[in-house]
Amino acid sequence: MTPEELEAARDRVVGDVVADGLQVLFCGINPGLLSAATGFHFARPGNRFWPVLHLSGFTPRLLTPSEQGELPSYRLGITNVVARATARADELDAEELREGGRLLREKVAALEPRWLAVVGVTAYRTAFGERGARIGPQETTVGDTRIWALPNPSGLNARWTAESMAEEFARLRAAASA
């Protein structure tokens, strides 16, 4: 993709991948420009979401972003806190994240997944007003849906390796399977 093609994707929306009966609805912060340009969640090659999903045992093989439509067959889905695409998540302000959290609660209440897994604890803190939230299961629920804050799989998040992220994702998988 050219820089012009990526810039043209700014503010586009990437559709949710959802179905009834989801065990886990993964929730990104918002789509990046490559995701918006391609229409696929977590499309940037340096993003570790798809490898970590496989390493943690959620999928039997490594899926590519273009195979995101297979997720509901594993009782998994994807959405975002904020729908519009930006080059970087830090382009979103706190008010936009809070409004995204309100809309996300409505979506979760309608879909009723067993778990909502927000990938990015900092965005979760702002969107849900949970300033002290840490990685792991949260006390807050949306109806009967439990919430788990996961590390952000962006390649910019150097604090977490793919292996350490996979361990945390696997903890969620075990809880979702129980």
Largest sheet: 5 strands, mixed
- What is the average of the pLDDT values? 95
Oligomeric state of the chains in view:
single chain
- What class do helices, strands and sheet pairing give? alpha/beta
Large-scale geometry: globular
Regions with little confidence, pLDDT below 50 for 5+ residues: none
Cα Rg: 15 Å
> Which percent band covers the strand fraction?
15-25%
By DSSP, the count of extended strands is 5
Q: Alpha-carbon distance between the termini?
A: 43 Å
Helix content percent band: 25-40%
The domain count comes to: 1
CATH topology, what is it called? Uracil-DNA Glycosylase, subunit E
What is the tally of helical segments?
A: 6
- Element-by-element helix/strand order: HEHHEHEHEEH
Q: Explain this structure to me?
A:
The chain starts with a helix and ends with a helix. Helix content is 34%, strand content 16%. The longest helix has 18 residues, at 94-111. A 5-stranded mixed sheet has the order 2-1-3-5-4, with helices on both faces. It has a single domain (3-177), classed as Uracil-DNA Glycosylase, subunit E, CATH 3.40.470. The protein has helices at residues 3-8, 33-38, 49-55, 94-111, 121-128, 162-177, and strands spanning 24-28, 76-80, 115-119, 136-142, 145-150.
List key phrases describing it.
single chain, about 180 residues, alpha/beta, Uracil-DNA Glycosylase, subunit E, five-stranded mixed beta sheet, 6 helices, about 35% helix, globular, Uracil-DNA_glycosylase-like_sf, DNA repair, hydrolase, MUG/TDG, DNA damage
